Structure formats: C-alpha cells, structure tokens
Amino acid sequence: MAVLFIKQYSKYNFIAATRKLMKLTSYTNYALRSLQLAALHAPDLVRVDDVVRVHSLARPHIVKIVYELGKAGYLETQRGRGGGFRLGRPAKDIIVGDVIRLTEGPMDVVECFNPDKNTCPLIGICKLSRKIQEATAAFMAVLDNVTIADIISNRNELLDHIAPIQTGKSTARKERNTQ
Q: Phi and psi of 57, rounded to 5°?
C-alpha cells in the first residue's frame, strides 16, 4: 500500500501531504493561546470570555480547554463570580511540546506508528516510516525547546495588539468611525 502511495504522488505532493499530517488541531492552538493570554496577564486572573473575545473562539471550546489544562496543572482555576484562570506554574516551566502531547495525544502521523492499528506489511523494514518518525521527532524537539515564556517574550507588542480587542474597540471599528 505504501508503494502505491509513493507511485501516485510526486515528491512535492508527498511533502505537502506530510505537512498536512503534521498540522496541529485547533484544540491545541486554542490551548496554547489560552496559556499565552494567562501568561501575558500573570499573575492576574483571565476570564474565559477574554480568550473568546481576543481570539474569536467559541466559549464551550475554551471552557473545555481550561478544564483540561487545569487538571494537568498548567492552569489554576477559580470558580464563581470574579473567577477565571491563571498559570498554575511559571511560564518558563511550561514547555510547548508537553502541552501539545497533552492536547494531541499520541503523535501517530501514519498508521504504522501505532502497532495496534497498523495494517502495513512493511512495518519494520520501511524506510519511509523511519523518515516520518524522524521528522515527527524533529518537529517535537523544536517545540520541546519552547516555553510559554518564550512565546510572550514580545509581551508589550502582544498586549498593545490585543488591548483594543479586549476592551471591545477593534481597529476595524475605529477605521470605520473615522471615515
């Protein structure tokens, strides 16, 4: 089956297909954005509605993400009126690769990564599978060297950009009002 795949696609299309497989889910993106916003506002509480407003996301998704990140110890949550969430540990100690492993689960980019689901007869001898495993390991190695502190290192620039959104005054609205 793997041989047919290679014959059907040019090298360019194979690389494009691999890139598509390495794409992280929106859930992971939202989790990282929630942690980023909490780090930007540390030590203050951030409300779920703040994340929803800044990133134009659905509230139920963020509630679920905050719950999972809280269970894992990445966030500290406070319920009730005036509640919200904040980082559960220092931003420099939250590794992006670890968050991705939590939210994505096993990085089975192709079925042969998972022996329970594998149907390929080439397991163990396939050089393609080894290269994809190497690529996945390299991808995660880069993200294992990035912390939440790293992704907010341009804190002032990020805060300047999101401040109008958090207060409900987007630049698009300002532009319309000046015309």
A: -115, 165
